[in-house]
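Reviewers of the previous submission asked for a worked example of the structure-prediction workflow described in the proposal, so we include one complete record here. The input consisted solely of the amino acid sequence. No template or homolog information was supplied to the procedure at any stage.
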Amino acid sequence: MRKYKSLKDYIRLNNLEVIIQGLTNHIMAISCANASYSINDIEIHTLVWKSFDQGMLTITIGVSAILISSNGGADSLHYYNISLCGNVISRLSDLHIINIVEVTEEQLQKETVESLFMLPIISADNLEDIAEEFYEKYCPDYLLNPKQKYSFPVVRIKEWVGLKLWYADLPDNCFGRLYLKESTATIYDSSKYPIIDKYENTPIPRGAILLNYNYYYKGNKYDDVITFCHELVHWAMHQSYFILRHMLEDSFETMNCSVDLPNFDGNMTIADKAYWIAEGQANELSIRLAMPKHLVEQAIAEYENNSKGITRDGIYYQSMVEDFELKFNVSREIVKKRLMQLGYDFADGTCVKVDDCHYPAFTFTHGTLKEDETFIIDQSKYEQLLRENKDFEDLIKSNICVYTGAVVCIYNAKYIRHFINNGKNKYVLSDYAMKHADECCVRFNAYYNASAFQNYNYYIQEYLCSLIDKNKRVRFDSNKNETIVEYKHKRALFLQNDKILYDEMVKDGVTTFSEALVYIMDNKKIIDEDFKETKLKKKYLAEFLGCDDKTIQNYRNGSANITIEKAMLICLACETGPKVSMFLIEKSVGGIPDIGIKKIAYEWLLLNTDLPLNEWDRILEEDFHLSPIRFDA
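From that input alone, the workflow returned the following structure tokens.
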């Protein structure tokens, strides 16, 4: 079985004499008449393919050679860029030199994996342009169905370019396969649908595309449109790569759109890296063919025009994603990914499904997220961050933030609804938070746990390769979460002042509710309606609680009865922190009564004494199904 590491390896082992002879002739032609040289230690350093047309391959190699003069002069090291041409079909048996240029070592042709394996150069900078050009070439307007103008016309393109496409029995880890030479397979013919004919060991021509029958026709998972686009990219852009690989390796017969690719790292062979890159290019272009930029923009404009007057909330954008799922005939995961690629970051808050649980759609200020950023985090990555990131761990352990199962949000009743489900504490975003996620939710960066990924500006997408999902990680960066950090500092200062006030009361021998109230009113300051710092006055408390000044004075001198409801409202009026609040409750009624879920509800309220009374009412009614607290209760 024939197998070479790369085209450079092939030429070194099969065509080196051509290079030596050509270089010798070149040197003799430019040398003095009485001088002669021999070549020693010729080495091929780099190889770059330039063109491939009708089987004729043109390449440039960068070589070094030691020239030995017959006149006894000193040996000298020289560098050359040598252009060659040969027919790949004849395995470069006719390879010949067409140009030689002497250069410095720094001027040698720069080599890449792509240049060694006749792959196109695709980067983040030209991805969209290449995809649009590809779409225009292989999807002309007359192939589109006017009633389905957004859906990629798989069948029509298949027939137009003469591709053979069938559903077939493929391995579980293979979504689709492109055949590079004739073979056999078990295929399914749906031309007589709903009758499906099965043909075993059927001859498969070169260039045929097979889609996994279990995945697509049975509707188990993934997208046949995406996989067809993936294989179409291979067929249209990687023909030269296929021919070269087969010349280098007899057993190279198929390209598989696979669940599992080898990890891109230093242990890969150069040929494996080329395969990885080819798959990455097909993946990145496939989503852009299924949802071309110009059609996405057109679909958004059409959707917005048809939904004027509707509030742009999470439900609105989720409905857009679901609409595009039908229009483009791809999954909503594909729609979300594509919208994020194009800068429509609202997609992150739509169709939220984490660890098999669905969560309500949310939204935020547009332009908040970059393509590699998200508010969404699953349980395993959340736990990973707790282990690996001290700043993130501190946010959770200090109760600055809480995990809802989908997002990490500021632990405040303005943003979090706290309720009991089957005896367990549960958290969901409040109505306000679902409209202002950028104000209260932690933003994460996605990255990949394989340093070699960073060598390329494109990634193999999660929806086509489980390898990436295995290597995908999230990062918490406090510099990109300024609102969270600001809240943390503000909350820390509030709790610090709360502890100072509590410690001072204990130190000064405060033992009763009335003494504590007097102490708080004499020492704690609030911000009045003129936004000035002022002491707590009886008049302010009376107005807040809905009573008269005399009632407040009775609480100060200990002559009035106190209930848990009145004590709770006094804590709210005084905006006391959790330690001082619990001190007041204990000194007034001995603590929060352990009655049903009231204890949990009241403890939650005492963590949120910075909220207005109507918010306390909402929390009690909506989250805990309890009656609002009133001072005359």
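The chain has four domains: 7-111, 127-290, 293-442, 485-623. We consider this example representative of the routine output the project will generate in years two and three.
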